[in-house]
Amino acid sequence: MIRIYTDAGTFKNRICVYDERTKKHILDKIPGQNLTNNHLEYKALQLALKYVRDEYKDEKVQIFSDSKLIVNQVVGSWVTNSQDLFEEMFRVRDLLTPDITILWCPRDKNFAGNILEKLYYKER
Fold first, then answer.
1. E-only strand ranges, 10-45
2. Could you read off the pLDDT of 75-85 as tens digits, one per residue?
3. How far apart are CA 39 and CA 14, in angstroms?
4. Per CATH, the architecture of 2-123 is what?
5. DSSP 3-state assignment of 38?
6. What is the pTM of this model?
7. Distance of CA 69 to the CA centre of its chain
């Protein structure tokens, strides 16, 4: 099973995707002001889904996020009252395939989060 990890941080609006199989990570900065962490978490998930589409088409993939809110909204366990997040949620759902599972993981097990944390302490 392929495992991909995602995370986001409001410091410089960074998002990160980490591929456990290849040990490769992708960093991106999302333009904009006043973006919430939840918006950025959705953007990270979108980046991960596009990466999986390009690198692992037709393979079983698990994508992990440490955001319970985002994971539960995407899988349909929780609703969102925010129009902006609602739109982001559907962008993610449009990229999902039956071979991809979105799962929650604790923050300390999130490889993408560890990368963002190291960058934060290096650049602040």
1. 14-19, 24-29
2. 999 999 999 89
3. 11
4. 2-Layer Sandwich (3.30)
5. helix
6. 0.95
7. 12
